[in-house]
Amino acid sequence: MEIIKKENLIEILAPLNFWGKEQETGIKRENYLKKLKELAKSKEDAIALIGVRRAGKTFLTKQFLKEKIKEETLYVNFEDPKLEPYLSLNLLEEIYEAYRSYVNEKKFAWLVLDEIQNIEKWEKWVRIMQEKKEKVKIIITGSSSKLLSGEFSSLLTGRTLFLKTWPLSFKEFLNFKKIDFEKKYDYLAKSAQIKRLLLEYLKYGGFPKVVLEKNENLKKEYLQEIFEGIIYRDIISRYKIKDVYLVKTIAELSLNYFSSLLSASKLRNVLVSLYKKKFSPNLVVEILHYLENAFLVFALPIFSFKIKNQLQYPKKIYCVDSGLINILCFGFSQNIGKFYENLVFLELKRNSFVFDFDIFYWKDGTGKEVDFVILEKRKVKKLIQVCYKMENEKTKNREINALLKASQELKCNDLSIITQDFEGEEKINGKKIKFIPLWKWLLE
User: Fold this and answer.
1) Cα separations in angstroms, 103 against 4, 45, 126, 255, 284
2) Per-residue pLDDT, 309
3) Mean per-residue pLDDT of the chain
4) Largest Cα–Cα distance in the chain?
5) What is the radius of gyration, based on Cα positions, of the chain?
6) For residues 97 and 115, what is the distance between their CA atoms, to the nearest angstrom?
7) Coil vs helix vs strand at 137
8) Contacts of 228 (CB under 8 A, 6+ apart)
9) Separation CA 222–CA 385 (nearest Å)
10) pLDDT band at 103 (very low <50, low <70, confident <90, very high)
11) Is 29 helix (H, G, I), strand (E, B) or coil?
């Protein structure tokens, strides 16, 4: 591996660092910044920001570093093309030595190592830094869920604190659009505008760069770039896969099944019909697992206290961002109910890391289905249906009957149906069901 001189390293790193110059830090995401500051106060040596690429991890860490300039900082982007020829475990030590030689010889330092998964065995270097008790605190970012694994944590000396980052929530989206709420009634006063913006959010998603772009064609281009980045950088390159077309096909097919049940065997059958050749079931399962590791898709299991049932039954597939679905799947208007469901899943998933609950779907032997079961400490706390249109009496009865059946079976009385506009409460068979429009539910 080629060695790079310390002076050259400083030249590469300087443009992205707060070394006597300002840096672009984007719009503040106050909730994340507050959480990161809280984690930074702990005695642990390392903090990890994990999430899908382009969700804003870089800007978040730079917003944090901007407030720590007096304490000295170092930011390194391991997807910088200038560093690519030198990516190795040695590069980490060379960068640190260059920083100590030319920028900050002895003072305490905040180190941000962005997209750290591009360095193989990087955890060894972090562990050495922990053992040496260097005057640093390390923040790592990555777009792979493998960083959350117990295997990774066990390789480090100290405990690592995690912060899961996501594309913008609807509240954050409105903030980026300069829609603020000082009083509760502001939501109602601006409801027409909020509903219009909800459609934009459903169509183009919450990646910050996409949200800030006004040109619709450029929005689509950015979303395509994000998808390609996930496929090529986070899957094909990382796992050294040769069949690029197969990975892209599985990714696109998975997104076409968003908010629907999908099993590996079903996906394999579709591939066989497309390719006219056999595929190993293990290969399909493996690539689906890679898509999950890269935070592109999530697989929601059926509710059961038996692990065997959770593994045996098909899972429901959801995507990390509705904009990515929209550029790869046809029929936004025809599938808007499924977009609603995907958005509800993302909001629940986002909150599950804060409030510590698990999410499932429920289905009985007669085909009755409830979209989301919320489980806290092995007790079912909420049942949630998503139904875009409630005007059709047959549709309304179907959703209510499934909810009532699940309520009886799972002994849960907190029942909600999320709708487009229908709002209110109804008492049926002694059970109270709350109907709430999606935009209001997202802003609660």
Assistant:
1) 17, 22, 20, 46, 49
2) 78
3) 92
4) 76
5) 24
6) 20
7) strand
8) none
9) 32
10) very high
11) coil
Helix (H, G, I), strand (E, B) or coil at 96: helix
Q: How many CA atoms lie within 13 A of 176 on its CB side?
A: 24
DSSP 316-384: EEEES-HHHHHHHSS-TTTTHHHHHHHHHHHHHHHHHHHHT-EEEEEE-TTS-EEEEEEEETTEEEEEE
Sheet with 315-319, edge to edge strand ranges: 260-262, 315-319, 297-300
Copy the structure tokens of residue 417.
Answer: 């149906």
d(CA 145, CA 295): 7
By C-alpha distance, which of 407, 426, 346, 345 is closest to 435?
426
For residue 122, which amino acid is it? W
What is the reported pLDDT for 149?
59
pLDDT, mean of residues 365-386: 96
Whether the CB-CB separation of 275 and 300 falls below 8 Å is answered with no
Three-state secondary-structure class, residue 285: helix
Question: What percent of the chain shows pLDDT beyond 90?
Answer: 76
**pLDDT tens-digit map of 46-90:** 899 999 999 999 999 999 999 988 779 999 999 999 999 999 999
Give per-residue pLDDT as tens, 212-271: 999 999 999 999 999 999 999 999 999 999 999 999 999 999 999 999 999 999 999 999
pLDDT higher than 60, residue 151:
no
- The dihedral of CA 117, 119, 121, 126: what is its sign? negative
Residue 237: which of 120, 89, 86 has the closest Cα?
A: 120
Rounded Cα distance between 215 and 219, Å, is 6
* Tokens encoding 137: 């605190």
Distance separating alpha carbons of residues 133 and 372, to the nearest angstrom: 46
Number of CB atoms found within 10 A of residue 434's CB: 15
The pTM for the full model equals: 0.94
Please give the single-letter amino acid code of residue 244. V
User: Do residues 338 and 260 touch, judged by C-beta distance below 8 A?
Assistant: yes
In terms of Cα–Cα distance, which of 411, 78, 103 is closest to 238?
Answer: 78
Amino acid at 8: N
